[in-house]
Design a protein that fits this description.
Elements: E1 2-6, H1 10-21, E2 25-29, H2 37-40, E3 45-46, H3 50-56, E4 59-62, H4 67-75, E5 89-92, H5 98-110, E6 114-117, E7 120-121, H6 124-129, E8 132-138, H7 140-153, E9 154-159, H8 165-193, H9 198-207, H10 213-223, H11 233-249, H12 255-269, H13 280-287
The protein binds NADPH dihydro-nicotinamide-adenine-dinucleotide phosphate and the ligand O=CC(=O)O.
């Protein structure tokens, strides 16, 4: 199967490499074109523009940072829309809001193409290992066509029905994840500032009912102050912001998510946006005081 792949950031690079490893023919494009070279070394071809990739490939996948990037790659000059049409499918796996997805879907359908949104749950390592959870919605025929690729990229795909449902599900999941990261950070800070060992707290958590892979993975590196980005904090804050907007639209009160969003915003304002989202601990640690007053 031949696919195009637009966006070779942390996730896109791992996903495109995975497709290549599994025998897919992949044509890649990235805004910073030099980033394509690593994929070329693995056997990828390069398209000079998103339009060139879509012209060449029947199916094109995108993995871009946020709504404005997703819209720009479709609607701007040399974008997807210039070449999409009958018999071609576009699959956006970026985390965006439902309105962005709907706008892209409508434009592509107007040109006769098919569209699926398919954001993913799972970070850099699951992307490398083909263990993502795919939250798809939109054109069911295109979804079915993409199953061989989804089977390589993920451990499970959900088809959630009409366009927007994939985006919404992803935002709900990441809203919970961001709040949990804040709760863990506050807990580590409270343990530390009240004379307990944060490492012992992690050990206790890991044996109880609230044990989870995220605390287990991120906890130890947080204690070392090591925030090599798997999931950049700026993207987590974008997801909190979009989830809160979804809450606004539906009159759902989310005080925990709102407070967590403030912490992520604070972290961004301190220049931590490109670090892993667990770097929010630096903000909450700072807010903890010495505990010795
Ligand atoms: N990292 C993670 O753990 C996960 C991330 N996600 C989501 O996946 C998406 C990608 O994340 P990730 O790979 O981590 O992000 P990165 O920041 O590593 O990569 C972002 C990509 O988007 C491109 N991009 C940004 N702005 C534009 C633009 N205006 N026009 C064209 N391309 C643009 C970048 O190009 P350039 O190289 O030129 O900057 C790069 O290819 C995000 O929506 C994120 O929320 C979902 C699950 C997990
Ligand atoms: O969106 C991030 C993730 O880990 O999932």
């Amino acid at each position: 199967m031949e696919v195009g792949f637009l966006g070779l950031g942390i996730m896109g690079k791992a996903m495109a490499a995975n497709l290549l490893r599994h025998g897919f023919r992949v044509t890649v494009w990235n805004r910073t074109l030099s980033k394509c070279q690593e994929l070329v070394a693995l056997g990828a071809a390069v398209g000079e523009t998103p339009a060139a990739v879509v012209a060449k490939c029947r199916y094109t996948i995108a993995m871009l940072s946020d709504p404005s990037a997703a819209l720009s790659v479709v609607f701007d000059k040399d974008g997807v829309l210039e070449q999409i049409g009958e018999g071609k499918g576009y699959v956006d796996m970026s985390t965006v809001d439902a309105a962005t997805s709907c706008k892209i879907s409508e434009a592509i359908k107007q040109k006769g193409g098919a569209f699926v949104e398919a954001p993913v749950s799972g970070s850099k390592k699951p992307a490398e290992d083909g263990q993502l959870v795919i939250l798809a919605a939109g054109d069911k025929v295109l979804y079915d066509d993409m199953v061989p690729a989804f089977d390589v990229l993920g451990k499970k795909s959900f088809f959630l029905g009409e366009i927007g449902n994939g985006a919404k599900m992803k935002l709900v999941v990441n809203m919970i994840m961001g709040s949990m990261m804040n709760a863990l950070s506050e807990g580590l800070s409270l343990a530390d500032n009240s004379g307990l060992s944060p490492q012992t707290l992690l050990d206790v958590l890991d044996l109880g009912a609230i044990a989870n892979p995220m605390f287990k993975l991120k906890g130890p590196s947080m204690l070392q102050g090591s925030y090599n980005p798997a999931f950049p904090l700026k993207h987590q804050q974008k997801d909190m912001r979009l989830a809160l907007a979804l809450g606004d639209e539906n009159a759902v009160s989310m005080p925990v998510a709102a407070a967590s969003n403030e912490a992520f915003k604070k972290a961004r304002s301190l220049g931590l946006g490109d670090l892993d989202f667990s770097a929010v601990y630096e903000v909450l640690k700072g807010a903890g005081g010495s505990g010795k007053a």
